[in-house]
């Protein structure tokens, strides 16, 4: 049985209660929101319920599962938090997922949407990039995200805010674990564009509480040490082996978050080095 929505409580539905969605849902419950959370299977239902989150089974393959409960979309705010799948047809598959999703949103009470996007939508321009840059990115995942961002922004029955997150770090996403997967030397001169999980949660809350709807924001630590600086410090603190660094002129980008900070948002970690250890 679904719970009855308490009068006076704002309702939020989070499509995707994973690494970011789960702590976000817990945070919103703690500040007295009524929170509905989705997961592709029922395996996480108990952990969601224990956290005060109303669980729903929803997946898009690419159409939404036929047995989903429509009450999930009976909320004022919907947070869409699932990345493009790693597949060769990602540029077609991901927009098809959103075609199905947008149909359900338009038939629901949702009026405000937050899309958790990524800075992979930006091309490597060898300079600072802002929300105004629209050059085609190199990666297929970035191209797919560009498409779904535009799909949501074209809708008129609800207002969409897009948050483009940098590389997500914190807690179990440790530098040593990431580096263990690297097969080649790292360009030590390239700047990092990283963001701690705590700031991710705080940014989404900031958008909701300040009614920052219908806009696009970059979300990334304002300071960008080089990869060599960041990983040398992480290795010193975390006790793992340093990777091989190379010095080259690899294409890069520096994600500018000034638009977000101009709204009054204060980062917990303005430099990813200050977030170590995690």
The number of helices is 8
Mean pLDDT: 94
Which architecture name of the domain at 11-168 and 196-220 and 255-262 does CATH use? 3-Layer(aba) Sandwich
Helix content: 25-40%
Kindly state the number of beta strands.
Answer: 13
Tell me the major beta sheet. 7 strands, parallel
Gap between N and C termini, in Å?
39 Å
CATH level 4 superfamily of the domain at 11-168 and 196-220 and 255-262:
NAD(P)-binding Rossmann-like Domain
**Unreliable parts:** 1-7
**Sequence of strands across the biggest β-sheet:** 3-2-1-4-5-7-11
Task: Specify the structural class.
Answer: alpha/beta
Kindly provide the radius of gyration, computed on alpha-carbon positions and rounded to a whole number of angstroms.
19 Å
Q: Class of the domain at 11-168 and 196-220 and 255-262, according to the CATH hierarchy?
A: Alpha Beta
- Run of helices and strands: EHEHEEHEEHEEHEEHEHEEH
Shape summary: globular
Strand content: 15-25%
CATH topology group of the domain at 11-168 and 196-220 and 255-262: Rossmann fold
Map the helices and strands:
Elements: E1 11-15, H1 21-30, E2 34-39, H2 45-50, E3 54-57, E4 77-80, H3 90-106, E5 112-118, E6 128-129, H4 140-153, E7 159-165, E8 167-169, H5 175-179, E9 186-187, E10 194-196, H6 197-209, E11 216-219, H7 227-238, E12 245-246, E13 254-255, H8 258-261
Parallel strand pairs: 1-2, 1-4, 2-3, 4-5, 5-7, 6-13, 7-11, 8-10, 9-12
Helix pairs in contact: 1-6, 3-4
